[in-house]
Design goal:
The protein is of the alpha/beta class. It contains nine helices and seven strands. The protein is globular.
Length: 308
């Protein structure tokens, strides 16, 4: 029996169901015209009642892990002929940028199945596929969870999101011969000193390509040059090289490229109130240009290294 089938049977046996109407929203152009897919896995802001009821945190504290407004920052992808997949559930509930059963045993009231990944650095930090903490380091839960609860969440959120993401990538690759996934995120401003250029100030944007394993260097370089020319302080793979999505889907030799984009939240919002700042529309227009530039780079027939 596969781990996924086993999880479903155990979940159904205990009749655990989750309060999720739809796991994601897909915005698509009438016709996809570029080999590009944009995803926002952490911008979901629909907080299910089973999370709220089991949490010791208030609504604002739960939102500390949320990539607020990132889906709106990248919304112009459809104007450039590329689909945008956005999770509707919050990262504090399920993190799709982790392995499916990357779970902390200390969170549960029973032993986890042998296929669970329990010893990763992310689990140790409290940031598995069912997170133990929010980004501010505060524990989420007022009790231990059952594995059936975790399995039900993964069935309702994690697996549908990844099925749709994989479908978009593979459909794009088949149609165009290659695909670039822009995995869109935001990062808290605290601790973001620009390590390669300390005189430039905090890092504004981090590009992650799993140290060159997830995307062709030409694509990462194109994004880097475009953003630096606009005056942003840009880092590559430091401190974020990419998570599960970058590692699981990035396969440049097969024509699938993944570039994670982390945007400093202080650029576009108040990190305490979550309100958009005056700079939001400017940043949005610059990201629009980034999407256009990368779409054009993917379409260049002479572009080297896109399919190796």
């Amino acid at each position: 029996m596969s781990p996924l089938a086993s999880a479903r049977e155990r979940s159904d046996a205990k009749r655990v169901f989750v309060d999720v109407d739809a796991p994601f929203h897909l915005s698509e152009p009438k016709i996809q015209t570029v080999p590009l897919v944009v995803a926002s896995p952490h911008s979901g802001s629909r907080y299910p009642s089973d999370l709220v009821d089991a949490s010791k945190l208030d609504a604002d504290a739960l939102r500390r892990s949320e990539d607020a407004h990132v889906d709106a920052l990248f919304a112009s992808s459809i104007d450039h002929g590329a689909p945008l997949l956005a999770a509707l559930f919050p990262r504090a509930y399920v993190d799709v940028n982790r392995e499916p059963y990357e779970l902390d045993p200390a969170m549960f009231d029973e032993a986890l199945p042998p296929y669970a990944s329990t010893r990763s650095p992310r689990v140790a930090a409290g940031l598995g596929s069912i997170p133990r903490i929010v980004a501010a380091g505060m524990d989420i839960y007022n009790r231990r969870l059952s594995f059936a609860e975790a399995a039900a969440r993964l069935d309702a959120c994690y697996k549908p999101y990844h099925r749709e993401l994989n479908r978009l990538i593979q459909t794009t690759r088949r149609h165009f011969g290659a695909c670039l996934l822009l995995d869109a995120h935001s990062m808290p401003s605290a601790g973001l000193a620009c390590r390669d250029d300390p005189n430039f100030g905090p890092i504004d944007i981090v590009l992650g390509d799993n140290h060159g394993h997830a995307a062709a260097p030409d694509l990462t370089d194109a994004a880097y040059r475009y953003l630096r020319d606009l005056g942003y302080a840009v880092a590559i793979n430091d401190p974020y090289a990419g998570g599960h999505v970058t590692k699981a889907y990035g396969a440049p030799r097969a024509g699938v490229h993944v570039l994670q984009v982390e945007v400093n939240r202080a650029l576009y919002m108040d990190e305490m109130s979550f309100e958009r700042s005056r700079y939001f529309e400017t940043l949005q227009s610059h990201i629009d240009g980034l999407i256009a530039a990368l779409g054009a780079a993917m379409q260049l027939e002479e572009a080297p290294s896109l399919v190796r």
